Task: inverse folding
């Protein structure tokens, strides 16, 4: 490939990583690429924490009547495992990759609101740290990740754990909504000339859909958790039936958010797969519009299926039938995606790189998770399978076999763009096969033990139920899985030092991010590209194989350039990018401190001193937020596009 | 690249092994949903079976297409020509949008039929009230005239309707071999009707996470022939006679009469929480212990019923069932060994003969 | 056009007008308002569900006539509050119009009027809450009416719903004050009209939410 040999004039990774670590440029950054990397690294740390929690649980369940963990610690671990993996791992990992890649894909210099973007990352980290602080302050949340009422009422869950859960997730929730607004505006308003909606890469499409899901799904969760907080702190009794509240109302509020949340976790990954499969098949995606609109369809349907999590609560056969039918309908757009992916590879030149293997692994495992989902959509079958390990198997096939394998595909695919070095393919492939095998060893038997009657969320079980062998196999699988993650860490660390240096376009890809140096300069594009097709880079490289039969032949090739003269690069100094600022970090620090204070405002732990300290924390938080707002306004004036206009 | 492509059979091997494992999983295990003895669970199994085979069919076709595509079209040379750029085919797209809809329609129709049958509440059904507590089940017959816990006796061949309630948090009522789950929700009453088709002892669980000892919240269902069941009910309604026998527990000989005195002693607090019909024990917090000697398990399914296990439980309830209320009152060592043995003798003495069916 | 100047034209974080032809901040605010609509829908729905239950309970006991918790809610005060908030929307519109025609003294007058009216609403709500509290409607799952205690979540759902609306109004007032000072400090700044338009958009939304609450909770 000619492109691979092209001369690069921008910063090479070697010079970028020399010298001491520039803390300031990271902590005060508003660069979407740096923010993306902070997201990715912190999400990966939370992935390891969630994984350690999973391993502890698997050790406990490896043998019947085990006493390795106490019941209470086990309950904290499974609550935190799910909370971590969903809110602190898959969501921020999607956001992180999206943050890095989406502006590059649409030809933008940054997100629409760079400071808001910085606020999102620090709020997410504040929320995550608050959640984990609970382990040190008398007990982590222990009510399960869907926190069913009234178990979360203060009389049944007296530690502060659930308060940490509410406020920690509250902070990450604000971060998510702010991030989603940012993505919506960025995608709708920051596209390069010619990048019409129907030319956007599918990863951008899915990020747009997910952002809309987030802004419409999160508010009900926010309302539910505010009400729960009032129950716990001020005796409000929204969800306390003993005082006139309603336990089922919580489930409605939670799942109206909780089910769309599942699509928040999987759709961006489906977008990644839709980018990776065409590149390594050297073909365009099969049925672009069907793939894009099936994503939109899943997004819409996701809002009318929430009560399929509640078939057993006694809503009546009519309501159950409605939610069952709607849930089954979701299988149709999901199936469309899978068929289109396979058709994309059909008659292609399928290059089995590690990224591609992970993408194929994603489809393969997602098929299993999708099929087990169909049985769960049928209320009578669901009532046998729900709350058993069958559900645990299903959700891990969708979220690990789906989201996480897909994220590994994305990691191998975009790592060279982000770091300037390629991950080692040999080690990557070994890791892929180990992970695929150990994933199935860990989670496939869960279908079986679930069918054999093992309820989920039990900290121990009797011998002689026929579950012992499967549980031991699952535990062994978990350790193999953990080992495959260690291989990945080794691969990342060694490739960062000694990996093959990545060219602009190491995969012979099609989208705009591959026109830039790896890693791209802070301003991304020296010239904002002009886009005339769905695959601007591909069409520039292969004019004879260009074109897009949904649009007629693209007579005018896209204006993308991947080679600049030194003189031009020199001119980049004049590109105005928003300045470094600590305001977003101070703002989220203030909210985190105030939240911590709020947890203890009504707790009778040490009497008055606790309350005074709690009030102090809230005040400090408010002061920090005020300082940050002032700084923010001044920063925004400094960078205002209205004021930097030259006429 | 070729080498990796050849490795593709590994997942196939895994799949074959998994299928073998699935078949191995089809043994009649204590709580399996695949061997049913109740109409409700049987209808679910009759629905699951065709859906399962359809799912297997879809799996084989789609997974097969995926694997075949990858193997057939894997890149065979480094500088292969650019393949034909196919952007899509609307006709094919429409076909594979509509085809799955037909399969789903079939599943939906079967689903709704089963659901209608399973949600039907026969008016002639025998009514039993089940109340879930953290972490045990209470059962009431005949408008609360008979109250028992942890063992649910039902007649074979007659529909029973369980009125499901919860005293504290949410629980989930599940007898895998007889019927699917229904939530037990505080402030709301749900109903579950089913019919046992064979006599037997069946495992049952709380399936919804309900707090610290959720993993220890189980019960047994004993389905008796109608005549046996009627006899059981008559016997249960009879106030147990005062016993004065003895029993062996942990190497000590307990005396039932002494045990009765300990149980009634306000300082020991037993009677503050438990009811034993015909005595002064009238506490309503814990399970009703009338005819306790008939129980199949101790502490809601945690330990099999033996005098030694009962002694262990009385000795230190918190170590056997973390978080339970009795463990907060009866601390380890509060009852002397001899007192434990006496209580065991007393409780074990209150029983009558039941012709127990086999565990299924 | 040289490479450098081309780059410069495209510079900055938010172009005045993006691919959609709308200011980015305005687009973001519209999306945020969409999100907030669901937030208030959930709060209002919770209130209506529990109020319907309270009414059914009271009706079953034949107590609805004289124990309906709605009897707490005086229409007089809230009608004044609604009028104040509606008037503030009008002054907001006038303030924006003044910005666009660059009549700064007029702008300052109308924006200050909006701030005063908004603050008056918040104070009125504080008064209403205190009054209700003394009457026996509290943030508790029961209320006392004419010496009789009724188990109901009316107080809880009412205070949480209207309280969060009040919080939004308060934040709106803070935003208005910030804009007031910013415009006063940088009177000639070309971004002023958009700054005012944005806070106005939010202000009208908060106003509309009050119309919804007033209609669904107080009137019907």
Result:
């Amino acid at each position: 490939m000619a492109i691979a040999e092209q001369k690069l004039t921008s910063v090479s990774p070697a010079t970028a990583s020399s010298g001491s670590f520039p803390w300031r440029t990271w902590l005060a950054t508003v660069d979407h690429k740096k923010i993306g990397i902070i997201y990715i690294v912190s999400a990966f740390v939370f992935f390891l924490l969630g994984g350690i929690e999973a391993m502890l649980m698997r050790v406990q369940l490896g043998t019947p009547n085990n006493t390795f963990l106490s019941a209470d610690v086990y309950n904290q671990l499974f609550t935190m495992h799910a909370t971590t993996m969903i809110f602190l791992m898959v969501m921020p990992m999607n956001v992180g990759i999206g943050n890095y890649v989406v502006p590059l894909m649409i030809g933008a210099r940054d997100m629409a609101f760079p400071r808001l973007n910085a606020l999102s990352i620090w709020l997410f980290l504040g929320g995550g740290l608050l959640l984990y602080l609970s382990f040190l302050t008398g007990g982590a949340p222990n009510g399960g990740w869907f926190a069913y009422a009234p178990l979360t009422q203060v009389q049944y869950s007296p530690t502060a754990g659930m308060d940490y859960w509410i406020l920690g997730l509250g902070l990450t929730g604000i971060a998510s909504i702010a991030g989603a607004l940012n993505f919506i505006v960025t995608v709708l308003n920051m596209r390069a000339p010619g990048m019409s909606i129907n030319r956007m890469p599918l990863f951008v499409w899915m990020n747009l859909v997910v952002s809309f899901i987030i802004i419409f799904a999160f508010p009900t969760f926010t309302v539910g958790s505010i009400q729960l907080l009032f129950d716990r702190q001020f005796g409000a009794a929204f969800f306390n039936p003993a005082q006139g509240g309603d336990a089922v109302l919580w489930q409605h509020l939670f799942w109206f958010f909780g089910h769309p949340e599942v699509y928040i976790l999987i759709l961006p990954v489906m977008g990644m797969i839709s980018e990776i499969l065409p590149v390594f098949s050297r073909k365009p995606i099969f049925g672009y519009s069907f793939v894009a609109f099936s994503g939109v369809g899943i997004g819409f349907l996701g809002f009318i299926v929430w009560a399929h999590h509640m078939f057993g609560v006694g809503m009546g056969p009519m309501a159950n039938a409605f939610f069952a039918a709607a849930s089954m309908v979701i299988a149709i757009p999901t199936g469309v995606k899978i068929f289109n992916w396979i058709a994309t590879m059909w008659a292609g030149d399928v290059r089995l790189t590690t990224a591609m293997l992970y993408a194929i692994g994603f489809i393969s495992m997602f098929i299993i998770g999708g099929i087990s989902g169909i049985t769960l959509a049928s209320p009578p079958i669901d009532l046998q399978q729900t709350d058993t390990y069958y559900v645990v198997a299903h959700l891990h096939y969708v979220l690990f076999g789906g989201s996480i394998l897909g994220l590994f595909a994305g990691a191998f695919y975009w790592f060279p763009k982000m770091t300037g070095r390629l991950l080692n393919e040999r080690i990557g492939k070994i890791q892929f096969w180990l992970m695929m095998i150990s994933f199935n060893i860990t989670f496939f038997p869960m279908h079986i033990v679930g069918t054999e009657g093992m309820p989920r969320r039990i900290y121990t079980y009797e011998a002689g139920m026929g579950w012992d062998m499967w549980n031991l196999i699952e535990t062994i699988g978990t350790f193999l899985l953990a080992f495959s993650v260690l291989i990945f860490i080794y691969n990342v660390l060694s490739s960062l030092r000694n990996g093959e240096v990545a060219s602009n376009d190491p995969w012979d890809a099609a989208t705009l991010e591959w026109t830039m140096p790896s890693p791209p300069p802070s301003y991304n594009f020296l010239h904002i590209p002009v886009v005339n097709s769905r695959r601007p880079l591909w069409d520039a490289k292969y004019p004879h194989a260009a074109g897009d039969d949904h649009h007629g032949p693209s007579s005018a090739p896209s204006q993308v350039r991947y080679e600049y003269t030194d003189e031009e690069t020199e001119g980049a100094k004049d590109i105005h990018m928003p300045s470094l600022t600590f305001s977003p970090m101070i703002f989220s620090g203030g909210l985190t401190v105030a939240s911590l204070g709020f947890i203890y405002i009504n707790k009778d732990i040490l009497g008055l001193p606790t309350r005074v300290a709690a009030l102090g924390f809230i005040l400090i938080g408010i002061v920090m937020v005020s300082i940050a707002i002032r700084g923010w306004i001044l920063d925004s004036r400094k960078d205002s596009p209205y004021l930097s206009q030259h006429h | 690249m070729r080498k990796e492509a050849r490795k593709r059979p590994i997942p196939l091997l895994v799949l074959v092994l998994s299928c073998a494992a699935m078949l191995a999983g089809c043994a009649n295990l204590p709580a399996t949903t695949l061997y049913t003895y109740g109409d409700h669970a049987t209808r679910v199994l009759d629905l699951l079976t065709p859906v399962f085979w359809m799912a297997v069919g879809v799996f084989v076709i789609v997974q097969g297409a995926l694997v075949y595509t990858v193997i057939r079209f894997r890149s065979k040379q480094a500088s292969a020509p650019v393949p034909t750029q196919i952007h899509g085919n609307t006709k094919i797209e429409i076909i594979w949008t509509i085809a799955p809809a037909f399969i789903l329609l079939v599943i939906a129709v079967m689903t709704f039929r089963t659901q209608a049958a399973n949600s039907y509440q026969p008016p002639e059904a025998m009514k039993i009230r089940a109340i879930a507590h953290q972490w045990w089940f209470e059962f009431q017959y005949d408008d609360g005239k008979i109250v028992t816990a942890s063992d649910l006796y039902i007649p074979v061949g007659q529909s029973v309707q369980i009125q499901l309630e919860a005293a504290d948090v949410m629980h989930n009522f599940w007898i895998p071999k007889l019927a699917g789950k229904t939530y037990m929700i505080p402030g709301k009453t749900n109903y579950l009707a089913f019919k046992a088709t064979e006599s037997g002892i069946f495992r049952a669980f709380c399936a919804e996470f309900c707090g610290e000892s959720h993993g220890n919240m189980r019960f047994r269902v004993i389905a008796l022939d109608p005549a046996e069941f009627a006899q059981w009910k008559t016997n249960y309604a009879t106030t147990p006679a005062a016993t004065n026998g003895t029993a062996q527990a942990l190497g000590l000989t307990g005396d039932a009469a002494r045990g009765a005195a300990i149980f009634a002693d306000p300082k020991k607090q037993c009677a503050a929480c438990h009811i034993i019909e015909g005595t002064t024990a009238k506490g309503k917090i814990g399970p009703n212990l009338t005819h306790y000697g008939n129980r199949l398990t101790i502490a809601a399914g945690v330990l099999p019923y033996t005098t030694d296990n009962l002694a262990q439980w009385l000795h230190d309830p918190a170590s056997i069932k973390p978080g339970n209320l009795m463990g907060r009152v009866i601390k380890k060592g509060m009852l002397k060994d001899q007192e434990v043995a006496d209580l065991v003798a007393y409780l074990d003495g209150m029983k009558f003969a039941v012709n127990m069916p086999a565990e299924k | 056009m040289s490479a450098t100047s081309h780059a410069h034209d495209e510079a900055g974080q938010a172009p005045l007008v993006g691919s959609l032809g709308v200011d980015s901040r305005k687009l973001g605010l519209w999306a945020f308002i969409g999100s907030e609509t669901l937030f208030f829908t959930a709060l209002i729905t919770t209130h209506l569900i529990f109020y319907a239950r309270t009414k059914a309970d009271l009706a079953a006991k034949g107590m609805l006539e004289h124990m309906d918790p709605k009897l707490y809610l005086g229409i007089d005060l809230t009608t004044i509050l609604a009028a104040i908030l509606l008037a503030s929307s009008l002054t907001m519109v006038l303030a924006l119009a003044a910005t666009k025609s660059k009549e700064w003294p007029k702008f300052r007058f109308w924006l200050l009027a909006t701030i005063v009216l908004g603050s008056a609403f918040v104070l009125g709500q504080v008064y209403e809450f205190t009054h209700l509290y003394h009457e026996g409607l509290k943030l508790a799952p029961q209320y006392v009416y004419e010496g009789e205690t009724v188990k109901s979540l009316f107080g809880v759902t009412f205070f949480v719903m209207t309280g969060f609306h009040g919080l939004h109004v308060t934040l709106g007032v803070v935003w208005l004050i910030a804009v007031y000072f910013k415009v006063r400090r940088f009177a000639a700044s070309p971004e002023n009209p958009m700054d005012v338009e944005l806070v106005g958009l939010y202000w009208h939304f908060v106003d509309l939410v009050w119309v919804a609450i007033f209609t669904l909770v107080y009137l019907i």
Strands of chain C lie at 142-145, 148-151. The domain at 24-219 of chain C is CATH 1.20.120.80 (Four Helix Bundle (Hemerythrin (Met), subunit A)).
